[in-house]
Design a protein that fits this description.
globular, alpha/beta, three-stranded mixed β-sheet, eight-stranded mixed β-sheet, Rossmann fold, 11 strands, binds S-adenosylmethionine
Length: about 300
């Protein structure tokens, strides 16, 4: 079954539209990165932001159990329709939606068809705090800085506490800057990389074709959304020796935060099975218990 879906991705031109290459191999590589860098489990709920023609959807859905689920979102109706027709019928735990968002690079592919597809006007319609893992492969490589900020903030709101978001990107740091200056990079960024927050494809006719971020800017952007870096994986796009991934990958974690109105004594009253006293030390242990276990176990706290 999957073989023919991959063939159709090629025949329809959709695979080319989302970057080309061998769609099965790219999906497999991206899936491996998700599995190992986000600690994906079969019963998790996954959002694939900018899902394209479903190259990642197929291996993720093969991995997920019936308790797990996958949601793919893209702004191009043709891609979403392809996923609806070719992937959703075999997987009851998959859904694909059209997002009303805009993108100067991809808007030209929004043709008329697909009016009947499920749509969202705002990412938050997908359910705040409802996803364990969110992926965005080759999407932040095509977003303007302000769009990256607003999308990352919304995606963070969709994450469960402790959830992970994986972005593939081109990170500008001292190592990539050196390799760019030496002319080793296969991406068309200028050699003379400035200290701007974001850098664009050297040929500025289509600046969103290829966008890089200063690494510290992306870390700050995550921090401002309430995320902390979990893993950073450096790819070989700028001339590093061959690695698993061409693009860099940043995985952020949505920190579990103690609610401002959390009262440890009340938590202990509501959860009498916890072996802590109401001393100062016991209260500290109760707070730690909530952060590590209580929120996952949906324990009452107010
Ligand atoms: C390079 S393609 C990658 C597709 C897919 N992630 C993959 O790796 O096969 C980028 C995708 O992001 C989508 N995209 C761009 N801006 C978006 C936005 N604001 N919201 C959702 N999808 C977006 C595009 O329509 C396109 O399908």
């Amino acid at each position: 079954m999957n073989k023919s879906v991959y063939q159709k991705m090629q025949e329809t031109g959709f695979n080319h539209m989302v970057g080309g290459g061998d769609p099965r191999e790219i999906g497999r590589q991206n899936f491996t990165a998700v599995q190992f860098l986000t600690q994906l489990q079969p019963d998790m709920r996954v959002l694939d932001f900018g899902c394209g023609c479903g190259r990642l959807a197929l291996p993720v859905l093969d991995f997920l159990s019936e308790q797990g689920s996958y949601v793919g979102v893209d702004i191009i109706p043709g891609l979403v329709k392809f996923c609806q027709d070719e992937i959703a019928p075999q997987h009851g735990n998959a859904s694909f939606l059209v997002s009303a968002d805009r993108n100067d690079l991809y808007d030209k592919f929004k043709l008329d068809h697909g009016q009947e597809l499920p749509r969202i006007n705002d990412l938050l319609e997908l359910g705040e705090g409802s996803f364990d893992v969110i992926t965005a492969f080759s999407v932040f490589t095509h977003l303007k800085y302000d769009d990256a900020v607003s999308n990352l903030a919304k995606l963070t709101q969709l994450l469960k506490p402790g959830g992970k978001i994986l972005l593939s990107c081109f990170l500008i740091n001292s190592s990539s800057r050196e390799l760019l200056a030496a002319g080793n990079s296969s991406t068309p960024f200028g050699k003379d990389v400035q200290q701007d927050k974001q850098i664009y494809f050297a040929d500025c006719r289509e600046p969103l074709t290829c966008v890089g971020f200063q690494e510290r800017e992306l870390v700050m952007m995550g921090h401002d959304s309430g995320l902390q870096p979990f893993v950073t994986y450096y790819g070989h796009w700028c001339g590093r020796p061959p690695r698993h991934s061409f693009q860099d990958i940043m995985v952020f974690e949505n920190l579990v935060k103690l609610p401002a109105e959390f009262d440890a004594r009340r938590y202990l009253q509501l959860n009498p099975d916890l072996p802590f006293e109401t001393t100062a030390e016991g209260q500290l242990l109760a707070e730690r218990h909530f952060l590590e276990h209580g929120y996952k176990e949906n324990r009452s706290w107010k």
